[in-house]
Amino acid sequence: MFRTRTARAAVTLALSLFVLQAPFATLAQGPAAPPAVQTRQPPPLANPAATVQQAPPSQAEDKRLEKIRRIVRKVGVGGKITLFLANGDELHGAVSRIGADDVDLAETDLRQLFTIRYANVRKVRDGYDHVSLLTGRRASSPRGFKIALHVGVIALIALPIIAIGAAKD
Questions:
Q1: Which domain range does residue 74 map to?
Q2: Residue 169: what pLDDT?
């Protein structure tokens, strides 16, 4: 079908880059549902004396929240950010307001403004990733995984090409 080595290499490279655009976990999930983020406070109880006192946050929880606040302040208003929520959802967008206990995020994919409490955030990352061509969703894989995957694919492509080139000589 392809008579030259360069044509085979080009097709192999194109196919591998196409496959890299869609993580296998997101292919099985199907279309994405909008994240469930609550922005309103629950209604007050009828009897204020019957309210249950919440336990104060632990020292580890305070450190985690302070780290999240520090990263959000470092990115600043208008900066791109990814929020990994405690319920497993991911929000990608621009910071529109930074508060003491929450942050407003203008979500890029859903085109909505969300108010997210720092207590509901599991992890924060500066910036956000590209949109997958196959699924239409943003792919947020760990950066180390991306590097290892690209090195592996390049090695799988380069080794046969080098072997074929060396065998012809």
A1: 5-13+57-168
A2: 59
What is the mean pLDDT of each successive set of 10 residues along the chain, which is 169 residues long?
Answer: 69 67 48 50 41 62 90 92 89 91 89 91 85 72 74 87 79
| Inter-CA distances, 80 with 27, 34, 67, 83, 167, Å | 25, 19, 17, 10, 49
CA distance 125 to 37: 18
Radius of gyration of the chain measured on its C-alpha atoms: 23
Q: 3-state class of 103 per DSSP?
A: strand
β-pair partners for 94: 80, 106
CB burial readout 82-102, b (16+ within 10 A) else e: bbebeeebbbbbbbeeeeeeb
How many other CB atoms are found less than 10 A from the CB of residue 103?
A: 24
Residue 26 in contact with residue 139, Cβ under 8 Å? Answer: yes
What is the count of structural domains for the chain? 1
The pair of structure tokens assigned to 157 is: 């492509």
Lookup result for tokens 């006192």: 53
Q: Residue 152: give its domain's CATH number.
A: 2.30.30.100
Edge-first strand order for the sheet with 80-85 is 112-117, 102-107, 90-98, 80-85, 121-126
**Amino acid letter for position 157:** I
